[in-house]
Amino acid sequence: MFGFKPGEEGTGSEDIYFIKVLGVYKRMSEALYGKVHYPPRGFSDLHDKALWMCGDASWKWHTKEMNDPYITPTKPLYLSRPDIFKVAAGAWVHKQRFITNGDPRGVGVCRPDVFASTRVKEDFITFCDFFSDRVSKAESPVDGKNSVVVGETTLDHFQDSGSRIMFHELVHWFGTTFDEKGDLIRLPDQQAVSADGDLVWVYTDKVGRPKLTTTSKQQPGISYAKWVVYTYARCSRLARSHPGSEFAQNSGPAMATNTAETYAYFAMMAYLDNFDWSGDEIAKNINGD
Asked: At the top level of its lineage, which domain of life is listed (predicted)?
């Protein structure tokens, strides 16, 4: 799932990819079990933990001339928050978090087909309205562990489950670190690759349907957007190395350990460890029968 193989005696503690993966899970475990906050004052240095939100309707647009709602006595936002409003003419505000997207028509957190969004810079995680539609009907690994059918059930069966989506967002949070200068190093969603490692893009065809293609098959005059890694197949392809290929830089352990979905799928595999999910993501007996 992460693209690196352990040695004969296991994965050594000096392996950079193993260290990265272990660090993400360790930070998550320590925080969720209540030992520590990560980071101690959030990524903004203003909050000790992430704000979890349902939808983005709570955000209110403020111009820089409006009074700061979080200080007493109050003063205009351009005076109280000069770091934010030095350039921005306005911002979306909620619980001492500020989004300066420059668009008073909408905060832009929840968009069509978006289940959830993690904004580490502003210290919040949002589960969008779209989340409830398909997720309410999806079976989670916890609910489905005892109903897995060997040879039939796939890991993607749990892909729309709330636990998979929440875990994915938590990886964005706990996978983010600081560099030596204090700048954020985010753990993002990587661009998907094809079976041979070419980058995958999405475009809209003449009748408005989304279509996928690769860099080598792009046509002039068409607008393309990145297609990011979701589902088992995309995780698996991202983990593969293609040494000597023109696409070698697009995949392998450096990329697979730096995308949120691989951590979520590995967690599902670890929880459902009474089955073998390797190779084709279809449940198999551990003993190979």
From this structure: Eukaryota
